[in-house]
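Thread: quick sanity check before group meeting

JM: Hey all, I'm pulling together slides for Thursday and realized we never actually wrote out the predicted structure for the chain we discussed last week. Dropping the sequence here so it's in one place. If anyone has concerns about the input, flag it before I start.
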Amino acid sequence: PHLPHTAVAKLGELVLRSLDREVLKTSKLSAARQENLRTAVATLATKERLPEYRLMFRASSLMGANAFALPGGTVVVLDNLATLATDDQLLATIAHELGHVKMHHPVRRLIQDAVVTTAVAAYLGDLSTAVASATALALNANYSRDFELSADRYAADRLFDAGKDPRNLISLLEKIEVFYELQCGAI
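JM (edit): ok, ran it. Output follows.
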């Protein structure tokens, strides 16, 4: 929260531009469904103002059924997730991602990963970067779980306040699990 928003937003733009070049494609989701989702997200601003955000839709054959938040407030929903989910389930997912935005998780995670990876690499000396990165990932696992739980709480609160069922997030996660089990075998 202490970093200038313009710097964080620029970082998010650079990340999105890189993803657009490498793994993301133009969404095939209808303009009407995109607009319906944008309108539904606006209903979440009841008791508490939503954080500044941009809702984007993209396709990706590599990233599966997913949604994610970037530094600066961009929330990206992938077509594979939209195909799998109802609008209420997508709204719950977007609320979860807005929780990450509200609590600055994307930029905090980026900074934390850089610091932990650098510290582990310095400590391990001349061992490979892969070992340092794997160690950093293991050290960050609990912190990431805390981020997810706090984003879940934020989503549940926003959905409940807007008269929506927070269990839509759970039902979508169950759908995704079944989808991946069918695609890849048992998880």
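AS: nice. The two ends are 37 Å apart (CA to CA). The chain has seven helices and four strands.
JM: adding both to the slides.
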